[in-house]
Design goal:
The chain is mainly alpha-helical. The protein folds into two domains: about 30 residues; about 110 residues, Orthogonal Bundle (Cytochrome Bc1 Complex, Chain D, domain 2), CATH 1.10.760.10. The protein is built from six helices and no strands. Helix 2 runs antiparallel to helix 3 and helix 3 packs across helix 6. The longest helix is centred in the first third of the chain and has 27 residues.
């Protein structure tokens, strides 16, 4: 009798553990990758995640240095909160329904505002054309 209860308990624990391992990818699907995870995801991720990764990578867009970001997905614990020097990145699709205007802002913000402190990412080739397009894909989702 005791052996049956012990075997059942071990089997139950094993099933529970296996079930939790199976659900790990599903639980993380609503979590944005951090910078380290972006390096691995760059080859397989969709354009929205690739755009997020360009935006958060300190050697690329580094948008979080100046902008606060509101997303529907869970914020990675290893990322600091966004900055407050630039305007918050919220409701971007409503604020920039024309992707060309958003692209122009990222490419060279000093065209619209000569006093802007935002780096001219495209003009100074800090980001490639493709990387700017990826950031726009991500921004259009928030």
């Amino acid at each position: 009798m005791r052996k049956t209860i012990f075997t059942s308990a071990v089997l139950g624990a094993a099933v529970l553990l296996a079930g939790s391992l199976v659900t790990i990818p599903l639980a993380s699907a609503d979590t944005l990758p951090d910078e380290k995870q972006c390096k691995k995801a760059a080859k397989t991720a969709d354009n929205v995640i690739k755009g997020w990764c360009v935006a958060i990578t300190r050697r690329k867009g580094n948008c979080l240095a100046c902008h606060g970001v509101t997303t529907k997905a869970r914020w990675p614990e290893t990322l600091p909160p966004g900055g407050n020097m630039g305007p918050p990145l919220v409701a971007m699709k409503q604020r920039f329904p024309d992707k060309a205007k958003l692209r122009a802002q990222i490419y060279d913000a000093t065209v619209a505002n000569p006093q802007s402190v935002m780096p001219p990412f495209g003009k100074h080739k800090l980001l490639s054309e493709k990387e700017i397009d990826l950031i726009i894909e991500w921004l259009q989702t928030i």
